[in-house]
Design goal:
With 347 residues, the protein is mostly helical. The chain has 15 helices and no strands. The protein has 4 domains: 94 residues, no CATH class; 117 residues, no CATH class; 39 residues; 49 residues. It is 76% helix and 0% strand.
Length: 347
């Protein structure tokens, strides 16, 4: 009712000013218009963003793209860049002064998020430099369908099959995109590959062991086998084509790092000052650690026993317990025991 009366008053005032010949005053854009414009821009942006990032949509609880994977083709990357720049321009036209404090903060957050995405797509370009981008992305995409019980198992399995069908395409796009790859990035990707393949071969089928639809399970086996083959082909590609020629620099540069901190963390502290803060904190931690180096107390032994009991199988736990009893008066035993505990955890 208030807004109707306000509009009626504005209309009458306009008639009055026009009828008397009084000069018309420029009217400010109503705050309601800015709020509506911001709300619509937010909705439009996330509709667009989730179309480019189906995995992020699933993670956020939006299931319209659950049967899709990311498209890493260069035309699609260029389209996302153009879309992001379009939405950034729309946000720049919205005045935060005309928004509520909460919406103004959201405006800053969304602008920073878009700027961070553009920084990644245009300048840092991990899609071009990091081979692990592709297998880790599709594995996580499958994992979300497995983990989230938003639908019956059969329905989720159909969605997972649809995503598995797209895995070969994603990995081929990865092969086409990779260039200037740092050696360490290839090493990490190759270290991850056996686990990714094992995830497809063992963990994914176990997640849907309750499904007993023969036709659906046959399709599942077909797409899983094809996905495993695509992963193995990608692994060989990295070993034969990328690893021998990998000579890229893993560093993103000071300016990109400054922008990354600003856009992703909203930290605008100069880098040299951040480095001073970091070194000061490192020296403080080193000093505290040095002061704590002494003969283990009964409390530290209890800590190790609790760690052992909560992380180890019974047989390994008893081995750690015996070691605690035998070596509790030994001044170097904390380091030895921690090493022993790590070995037991891997056994």
């Amino acid at each position: 009712m208030t807004s109707i009366l306000s509009l009626a008053f504005t209309f009458m005032l306009a008639i009055f000013n026009g009828g008397t010949g009084a000069p018309k005053q420029p009217t400010a854009k109503p705050a309601e218009d800015e709020a509506v414009a911001f709300s619509k821009t937010v909705d439009d942006y996330f509709d667009s963003y989730f179309r480019f990032h189906p995995t992020a949509a699933t993670a956020a609880g939006f299931h319209q793209q659950d049967s899709e994977l990311e498209d890493f083709s260069r035309p699609t990357i260029d389209a996302e860049i153009a879309d992001s720049e379009h939405f950034l321009a729309r946000l720049d036209k919205i005045s935060s002064a005309d928004l509520s404090a909460e919406s103004a903060a959201d405006l800053d957050l969304l602008r920073s998020s878009i700027q961070a995405n553009l920084l990644e797509l245009k300048d840092i370009q991990m899609w071009r430099r990091d081979p692990n981008t592709y297998p880790s992305q599709v594995s996580y995409s499958l994992f979300l369908i497995m983990q989230r019980e938003f639908a019956p198992q059969e329905d989720r399995l159909r969605l997972l099959i649809a995503r598995e069908r797209l895995i070969p395409k994603v990995l081929i796009e990865g092969q086409q995109n990779l260039s200037d790859v740092p050696p360490i990035y290839v090493d990490v990707a190759l270290e991850q590959m056996p686990g990714e393949i094992d995830f497809l071969r063992n963990d994914v089928p176990k997640a849907f062991s309750a499904v007993n639809n023969p036709e659906l399970l046959a399709s599942f086996k077909t797409t899983t086998d094809a996905a495993i083959k695509a992963f193995e082909n990608y692994q060989r590609f990295l070993q034969k084509e990328i690893q021998p020629k990998a000579n890229g620099d893993f560093r993103i540069g000071a300016e990109n790092y400054r922008k990354k901190l600003l856009y992703e963390e909203m930290v605008d502290v100069p880098l040299d000052h951040l480095l001073e803060i970091g070194y000061a904190d490192l020296r403080r931690n080193q000093q505290q650690k040095s002061q704590r180096r002494s003969t283990p107390t009964a409390q530290s032994w209890r800590f190790w026993l609790i760690c052992a009991k909560t992380t180890l199988r019974p047989a390994s736990y008893y081995r750690v317990s015996a070691t605690c009893l035998e070596e509790r008066d030994n001044s170097s035993s904390t380091k030895r025991l921690s090493r022993f505990l790590h070995l037991c955890c891997r056994s």
